[in-house]
Amino acid sequence: MSQSLAPECTPLKHSYDACFNAWFEGYLEPAIAAGSNGGSGKNGSSAASPKAREEYSSKKAEEFEKNCGEVWRQYRSCVQGAVKEKGLDEMLKQAREDNPLKEPPLPSTSQSSSRS
Amino acid sequence: MWHKYPNPSSSHVTSVDVLDRTFDPKSGLVRTERIIGCKQNAPAWVIKLFGGSEQAFVREISFIDAANQTASITSMNLSLAQVATCYEQIQYSPASHDRTTFTQSAEIQARTSWRSVANGLENWLYARFQQNAQLGKAGFTDVLKRLWDERQLQLAGSSA
């Protein structure tokens, strides 16, 4: 397991990473199951409707909050403090201004590069 | 994908931290912002000219789209960004049921008007990108293999 940039945050980081990874694996489970069925039609729910998917995601979001919400907030505040202390916050601020990246980038920049 | 570090091909990575992570139940997208610390082997003249130190930091934004099974990772240097920037994009998307398309690109730009220095910097960064692009993919493939093996073991264990 990798370290935090601040040694004092490393234990919190490890707890958070473990919690998140367990949650995320559970979140992906239906997608993986649907994929490895190879469309054999074993269960018809593999192509879930958008509404069903959203319900599932909301349930999962609640589960995350319940299991990992507290350790996440502790870890985050620890790292935020360390980032400030090391003077990285200014660089981050600049990078976020230059490239907010709030939305995923458009797929494959190599072929379709017709920018207007 | 967040298991990418540590891996045997990236011993230069010294720390990995999540700064921000959001999950949008509507789209199912997970957005993660991380800060990655690495030891850089900058040429001595770069450190002499521009300052900076052995320790460098990179900001990385990733999006995981479970519904479409795609992942995109964008990263940029924080350290020495006033001197040169490297903006890298990686995408994983399904090509067929057992193949994945991997694309990787980078924009490298020196921000100094001193021509010979700019050229020297760009050349060095380009060479580093060539090296590390290969290593990064090899490293992540190692990690995926490890996760896959662990999973097979788990499955074997639970059905035994």
Summarize the structure.
The complex is a heterodimer of chains A (about 120) and B (about 160). With about 120 residues, chain A is mostly helical. Chain A is about 65% helix and about 0% strand.
Question: If you had to describe this structure to a student in words, what would you say it looks like?
Answer:
The complex is a heterodimer of chains A (about 120) and B (about 160). Chain A has helices at about 10-35, 50-85, 90-100. With about 120 residues, chain A is mainly α. Chain A has one domain (about 5-35, about 50-100). The N and C termini of chain A lie far apart (about 45 Å). The model of chain A is unreliable at about 35-45 and about 110-115 (pLDDT under 50). The chains are: A mainly alpha (about 120), B alpha+beta (about 160). Chains A and B meet through α1, α2 and α3 of A and β1, β2, β3, β4 and β5 of B.
Low-confidence stretches of chain A: 35-46, 109-116
Ends of chain B: how far apart?
Answer: 29 Å
The level-1 CATH class of chain B: Alpha Beta
The number of distinct helices of chain B, counting runs of at least 4 residues, comes to: 2
GO cellular component, one term (chain B): mitochondrial intermembrane space
Protein name (chain B): MSF1-domain-containing protein
Domain PRELI/MSF1 (chain B): 1-152
InterPro entries (chain B): PRELI/MSF1_dom, Slowmo/Ups
SSE order and pairing:
The complex is a heterodimer of chains A (116) and B (160).
Chain A: H1 10-36, H2 50-85, H3 89-98
Chain B: E1 13-24, E2 29-39, H1 44-50, E3 55-65, E4 70-77, E5 84-96, E6 99-110, H2 115-159
Antiparallel strand pairs in B: 1-2, 2-3, 3-4, 4-5, 5-6
